[in-house]
Design brief:
The complex is a heterodimer. Chain A has 15 helices and nine strands. Chain A is α/β, with parallel strands linked by helices. In chain A, helix 6 packs across helix 8. The N and C termini of chain A lie far apart (83 Å). A two-stranded antiparallel sheet of chain B has the order 1-2. Chain B is 71% helix and 1% strand. The chains are: A alpha/beta, B mainly alpha. Chains A and B meet through helix 3, helix 4, strand 6 and helix 15 of A and helix 5, helix 6 and helix 10 of B.
Chain lengths: 347, 412
């Protein structure tokens, strides 16, 4: 009898405990997993917890549908999520994220202008760059996207990312459109025609990649003489596989992943505290040495290891002629341009 | 009396027979039931459900119900009357409050570029209560609301069923007044991809036949241990994953791959040959994967042809080639028919192999099914293309059956 009573009491206590933890959940931070989250753990999560805060981490694969489902399901257990620029745009429009209080985050001027959004603050900056194998192309090297088209001087295949996004921008810049006019031009039918006409010139020499891991492989196997690639992948190939791949930063196309706070998060105050922590330039400066992504506070640039800085999209030298990938444009135009791109490829 | 009794008995007998046969039939059905249910649950059901997505259009009527209803009797020749505008305003406000405007915007953006931002900007700027004409308020927000195409797209998406995706998969579309018109020249893509799919599958089947027929013939001549070993070699590829076999071709055929290195060292070529990410590689890899499906039915048919037939032909004075062509080959035709059908139909749906070893203009229709299903998350287009592939396969199968006849086929 007494035993049964004890067991009942124990169960009740355990259930109460469960209910308590369900209500007072620790701040949950969600990022991209893999080597990137490993770096974040060292640079952000562990020091944040070491200074007396509680948090849990999870990872996800992206997709605004996942975030929608979290909120519509009614038991959202995520507080701070790292999202790509397209998810930021869609989610903010649909009201999936809390609006950020920029005074708490140190004011908008603290950040690179593209890292500032109503619903999100930039976390990392990375680029699509022109790359080639320095062991194969020596002496006179390509310097721009128009050199990418010059198969007379530098024979060999060219690899671009399959799909219109980034490809059409590159084609226009190779055709002499100024970086700041790229999206204005691409917004007109004549501009789209111009981009495809430029691609026509290179068509016989083009191969396409779909996964970020492919461009370094194509360079290594000699299948392509020049590629457009994520700068981080090229740096990793040089670092880990001892390659001598060169990066041309002229007119690189960059994009930003951002931190957002999920709508209605019960841990909003903690989430803000976390964002203040990760946006401290003294903390941000530690990320690039672990993984070659740029960070978003202006002050961090001066603090980053001088050997690492030239590998980053945020190095002032690399930013000079860079183009910010315009997600607003692509959200609108991707369906039609995908169709046109597929039709063009099939011809 | 006796006859009547006999008839009665007969009836009883017939009934008894029918009853016992019914029992046998029921037992047979009961035995196949698990398989039938399994097929229904894992094959017919899901595929059927997926294919219906190609004609179902429920997002816009669900999210914007009032304006959908208001546009039902609209003629499409001039801008709709005031009630439709008011209905649209109510719908957009309600959808924004519900937070589901995005699904409707996505669907409309498939049809008319810019619809997504049009809906969202309109939602943001729309006052809670419109003073005066709703039409003027909308035109003030964005002049695009004054275009017939904008309203045409809204009506085209009114559901509950649509031919939008199926037409698009055939490079067709409907204009604002509802007539079917060809897609713009620079967006025409799917018909040529269907043609390419059929062409590649046909070529692969032909190459498989040309290579498989002599192989099967040679195999059929062997006996005992030798035959067993050779047959084992034919079956060996089945023991390796399709993906591994395909990726192995990448390693072999690439610019600095095994084949190019060997040819360069042998001095046969001076420049590495381009053998990967093109049609050549697709043919090589697909033939490699599908060849056993040609060899096996051929082998089993050839094995069953008694050698005495050829001897009889020879004894009647036929030279060896004539005997072979007129006596042997016709008897193998059921195997040829079965092998070609198996290879061709499997080739039609190939996705992984062309995706890994082919170039951009070697992709077959299933690549685009995957593209819409997993990249742009446009289930309507994915289902429409899948339906067209399925319909083409069925049509070809019917023609094939008419020409050759299923009863003349031997699958081994």
């Amino acid at each position: 009898m007494q035993r049964r009573l004890l067991r009942t009491l124990f169960t009740a206590a355990a259930m109460a405990g469960l209910a308590l933890t369900a209500q007072a959940r620790d701040l949950t931070v969600v990022s991209w997993g893999g080597a990137y989250q490993d770096a974040q753990r060292e640079v952000y999560f562990k020091p944040y917890m070491a200074s007396g805060n509680k948090m849990a981490e999870e990872s996800w694969d992206g997709g605004v549908g996942t975030l929608r489902a979290k909120l519509q399901g009614g038991n959202n257990n995520w507080d701070v999520v790292q999202v790509e620029s397209e998810e930021l745009l869609l989610g903010c429009e649909e009201g999936l994220f809390e609006k950020l209080d920029w005074t708490k985050l140190g004011g908008k001027d603290k950040y690179l202008s593209d890292a500032v959004n109503d619903c999100g603050v930039g976390a990392i900056v990375y680029s699509f760059v022109l790359s080639y194998d320095g062991d194969k192309i020596k002496g006179d090297a390509p310097k721009s996207w128009s050199d990418f088209w010059n198969t007379q001087k530098w024979p060999g295949k060219r690899a671009l990312r399959k799909g219109p996004k980034t490809t059409l921008e590159i084609a226009l810049m190779a055709d002499g459109v100024a970086p700041q006019d790229v999206y204005k031009t691409l917004g007109t039918p004549a501009g789209v025609d111009r981009a495809f006409a430029k691609l026509d010139q290179l068509k016989a020499n083009l191969i396409w990649w779909e996964k970020g891991s492919q461009p370094p492989q194509l360079l290594a196997s000699g299948e392509a003489a020049m590629v457009d690639a994520y700068n981080g992948r090229i740096a990793a190939a040089n670092d880990k596989d001892k390659k001598n791949f060169k990066i041309v930063w002229t007119n690189n196309l960059y994009t930003i992943d951002s931190w957002v706070i999920m709508k209605g998060s019960p841990n909003k105050a903690d989430a803000e505290k976390y964002l203040v922590f990760v946006n401290d330039p003294n903390n941000q400066k530690n990320l690039p040495p672990k993984i070659p992504y740029g960070v978003t506070t202006k002050a961090s640039t001066g603090l980053i290891d001088k050997n690492v800085l030239p590998n980053l999209a945020t190095a002032p030298e690399n930013m000079k002629s860079a183009v910010y990938i315009n997600d607003k444009f692509w959200l609108e135009n991707l369906d039609k341009l995908n169709q046109r791109f597929n039709a063009w490829v099939a011809k | 009396m006796t006859t009547a009794a006999a008839i009665l008995d007969d009836r009883g007998l017939a009934r008894g027979l029918a009853r016992s046969q019914r029992r046998i039939k029921l037992r047979a059905i009961a035995l196949t039931l698990p398989l039938l249910l399994f097929l229904l649950a894992t094959f017919v059901g899901p595929i059927g459900a997926l294919l219906t997505k190609s004609v179902i259009d429920s997002d816009v009527p669900r999210i914007l119900p009032r304006v959908t209803a208001a546009l039902q009797n609209w003629d499409g020749r001039s801008l709709p009357p005031e009630p439709a505008w008011i209905a649209l305003a109510d719908d957009v406000r309600a959808a924004r409050a519900e937070g589901n405007l995005a699904s409707a915007a996505t669907r409309l953006n498939y049809d008319v570029t810019g619809y997504r931002s049009l809906l969202f900007t309109t939602g943001r700027r729309l006052p809670d209560k419109i003073e005066g004409s709703a039409r003027d308020a909308f035109l003030e927000i964005d002049p695009k609301w004054g275009e017939l195409e904008t309203w045409g797209a809204l009506r085209r998406a009114a559901g509950p069923v649509t031919d939008f995706y199926l037409l698009a998969a055939l490079d067709l579309r409907r204009d604002a007044s509802g007539h079917i018109a060809p897609e713009k020249d620079d967006e025409v893509v799917f018909r040529s991809i269907l043609g390419r799919t059929l062409w590649i599958s046909g070529m692969v089947t032909l190459i498989c036949l040309l290579m498989g027929y002599p192989t099967a013939w040679f195999l059929a001549q062997q006996t005992g241990r030798k035959a067993a070993i050779l047959l084992f070699l034919v079956l060996l590829p089945f023991w390796t994953s399709l993906l591994v076999r395909t990726v192995a071709w990448v390693v072999l055929l690439q610019r600095e791959g095994v084949v190019n290195d060997a040819l360069l060292t042998a001095g046969l070529i001076v420049e590495p040959l381009k053998m990967i990410f093109n049609r050549f590689a697709v043919y090589v890899a697909m033939v490699h994967v599908l060849l056993p499906f040609m060899i096996l039915p051929l082998y089993s048919v050839m094995k069953s042809i008694p050698p005495s037939y050829l001897r009889a032909a020879a004894s009647l004075g036929a030279p060896p080639l004539v005997a072979w062509l007129r006596v042997y080959v016709p008897q193998t035709l059921p195997g040829v028919g079965a092998g070609c059908l198996m290879v061709f139909i499997q080739a039609l749906g190939y996705y992984v192999t062309p995706a890994l070893v082919g170039g951009a203009d070697d992709q077959m229709i299933s690549y685009f099914v995957a593209f819409y299903a997993s990249k742009t998350i446009n289930w309507g287009m994915a289902a429409a293309l899948a339906l067209i592939l399925l319909a083409t396969t069925m049509a070809l199968y019917t023609v094939y059956q008419r020409l050759i006849g299923l009863d003349r086929m031997r699958l081994g």
